[in-house]
Amino acid sequence: MSLDLHWDTRELHTAQPFGIARWTHSVYPRTFVTLSHEGLTGQGEAAPNAFYGETRGTVEAVLPLLAGALTDPWDWDGLNAALSARMPHDHPSVKCALEMAALDWCARSAGVPVWRLLGLSPLALPESSYTVSLAPLDEMRTQARDAVARGHGVLKVKLGTPDDEAILEALREEAPDVALRVDANAAWTRAQAKRLLGVLEAARVELVEQPLASGDLEGHAELRVRAGVPIVADESLHHVSDVVALARAFDGVNLKLAKLGGPLQALRALRLARAHGLQVMMGCMIESSLGIAAAAHLAGLCDWADLDGALLLADDPYAGLQWTAGQLARPQSAGWGVTLR
Ligand SMILES: [Mg+2]
After folding, report:
1. Which overall architecture, per CATH, does domain 4-113 show?
2. What are the sequence ranges of the domains in the chain?
3. CATH code for the part of the protein at 117-340
4. Cβ-contact 76, 68 below 8 angstroms
5. What residues sit around ligand 1, an ion, with C-beta below 5 angstroms?
6. What's the start-to-end Cα distance of the chain, in Å?
7. Which InterPro entries match (predicted)?
8. Residue 139 predicted with pLDDT over 60
9. Against a cut of 0.90, is the pTM above it?
């Protein structure tokens, strides 16, 4: 029986405007791919990010060109080879959506969660961080206070402003007992980062994500030697083939399915990172519980989880993930374990 693919873009909205060093947005168009075959369906999500060259427009333009690469949901290597042959290194969120749909279909056909289909050990997920996004200082204080009141034990603070020291001090005062992580989103200069190292240590920051520009591996390598906290690559990691070079400049890497081209590509990056002595974070974009669920299937293999993308949404179209504050339970039902509301 032939295989049918269709897709549909929905605008998802964050409950509050979500701000990082580069931008602030409230509307996030996400394209959902459905694979129908032999009476079963599989689903995937494309969460494009402009930093990696993708928009709603590129996703909708490229999906018809890449959809033909998915001819057999069980042939995962064949799918990856066909996608890479058509668009090497580009359009990772589209590739992610197609790979997700294939894996969901296979796992539903086998009646198991995807993590079991892939033979991954059933390890507990690390507690996910909850993001305090960039906003006027009073609003950042409120975000942190509300998150702590809801039971979150790990906060990730977006920085990359001239006032970072004041923000960090204020949030530490607001949330003295949480694990605090910092994400500068590539916005610091080398000099700024060096000046802030003492502030980060005084605030007992657990790790710093992407302090410097994505191409500045030398700067990160220098900073890492001086820093008392792990330095984790996010924007510097675009593709599985970047991992080995990053091991010289960073302590860890943030893996996101949408930028790496899907769950199996993220798993390759994860194993490569481990082989080169890197620590590993499972991260996400602002995306629905479908995309978050896919990341959750791999998160038990990671040191850190940052999977709050769907918690920030006002209109998550998928349901089924079990959260207790920042602690996500490993999905137990077939496929990704979520359903359209
Ligand atoms: Mg980041």
Report:
1. 2-Layer Sandwich (3.30)
2. 4-113, 117-340
3. 3.20.20.120
4. no
5. 183, 209, 234
6. 28
7. Dipeptide_epimerase, Enolase-like_C_sf, Enolase-like_N, Enolase_C-like, Mandel_Rmase/mucon_lact_enz_CS, Mandelate_racemase_C, Mandelate_racemase_N_dom
8. yes
9. yes
